[in-house]
Design brief:
The protein is an all-alpha fold. It is 68% helix and 2% strand. The longest helix is centred in the middle third of the chain and has 18 residues.
């Protein structure tokens, strides 16, 4: 186990004296979580003290820790370690992981190879906020995506020096703001983030990122600009081979062309192509979106039977997730078509 900061030592002196020592106290595998690794205490950072010290004090007062020689500590039981980790706020937890990663890098600056797995573990969990923001975007929950994107940006401003994650936070925040009616601010944030990506020569995921801008322009009713964004996204798809968002890109092209008065046959071809792409990738959620778009178009053309069949064939595959926005809308549309 690492050595604690002098500011933490009084807390651990209050630890229960009869705690059973844990074997393998020096082990720092991924399963030991952030709280087992006291590397983040080896290099205390003043701006983190208000975040870290109250919790470490509470661990000592609750008799969860035991001393193992000079300045070495561990939890008294592996179950206590797990409970202690889960007791930390989900908002605060990534801060700990981020500081642990930075401390490991500092302590092992001469050779990072022995701690590379630990670094990957902490960075992965430290970026959980960004992934939650993206997940809520995929689920079409703009308010929640906004919250997690804001937390991502705040976390990166104090805990990380990697430009990708704050950039992703601004992209998702901008999209969420536009979805909630703050069009100018949302579009501005996304454009700034994409400019930063260009400056950093970061071209991965650009198909998806550019689609975020297209969505924001569409929220603002600027469908011609949204289509131009999709052309750029398609160019990235062809250059980078980023296929995971291809079906949605093609579906959105149909949506925006429809909004601009394109012939129904042209729009239908987009939706059908999107469904085929999603089917080939077994991307059922994206297939459902394409099926809903096609079903609505058939409904507008008066072909309710084709609309119902198209959508029901995809909807019937799902066995869970019925509270998500896409499945709720699909269920409501099926009920309308069946009436």
């Amino acid at each position: 186990m690492g050595r604690s900061s002098p500011k933490c030592r009084p807390s651990f002196k209050n630890a229960w004296p009869n705690c059973r020592p844990m074997p393998h106290a020096g082990r720092t595998g991924g399963g030991d979580r952030a709280l087992v690794q006291f590397a983040l205490l080896q290099k205390p950072v003043p701006r983190f003290q208000s975040i870290l010290w109250p919790d470490w004090t509470s661990f000592g007062k609750k008799a969860l820790c035991a001393s193992h020689g000079h300045q070495q500590y561990d939890f008294s039981h592996d179950r206590i370690r797990e409970v202690a980790y889960l007791s930390v706020s989900p908002v605060q937890r990534p801060l700990w992981h981020g500081q642990a990663a930075r401390a490991l890098e500092s302590v092992n600056a001469a050779d990072l190879a022995p701690v590379s797995a630990q670094l990957a573990f902490h960075y992965e969990l430290g970026f959980v906020m960004a992934n939650l923001a993206r997940l809520n975007h995929l689920l079409r929950r703009a308010p929640q995506s906004k919250i997690w994107a804001q937390r991502t940006i705040a976390l990166c401003s104090i805990a990380y020096e990697m430009p990708f994650w704050p950039m992703l936070g601004r992209l998702l925040l901008g999209n969420a703001l536009a979805a909630q009616g703050q069009f100018e601010e949302g579009i501005r944030l996304i454009q700034q983030a994409l400019q930063q990506a260009d400056a950093d020569q970061h071209y991965a995921y650009r198909t998806y990122f550019t689609c975020l801008l297209a969505e924001a322009h569409a929220y603002a009713g600027q469908h011609a600009k949204a289509l131009a964004d999709l052309d750029i996204a398609m160019d990235y798809y062809q250059r980078n081979g980023e296929r995971f968002w291809h079906a949605e890109l093609v579906r959105l092209r149909g949506e925006y062309r429809l909004a601009l008065g394109a012939p129904p046959a042209e729009v239908t071809a987009c939706y059908q192509e999107a469904m085929m792409i999603a089917q080939g990738q077994q991307a059922k959620s994206l297939e459902l979106r394409a099926a809903m778009s096609l079903a609505r178009l058939y409904q507008q053309q008066g072909d309710r039977d084709a609309a119902y069949t198209t959508l029901s064939n995809v909807y019937s595959w799902f066995t869970e997730g019925f509270k998500t926005a896409d499945l709720r809308e699909a269920r409501a549309l099926l009920a309308e078509l069946a009436s």
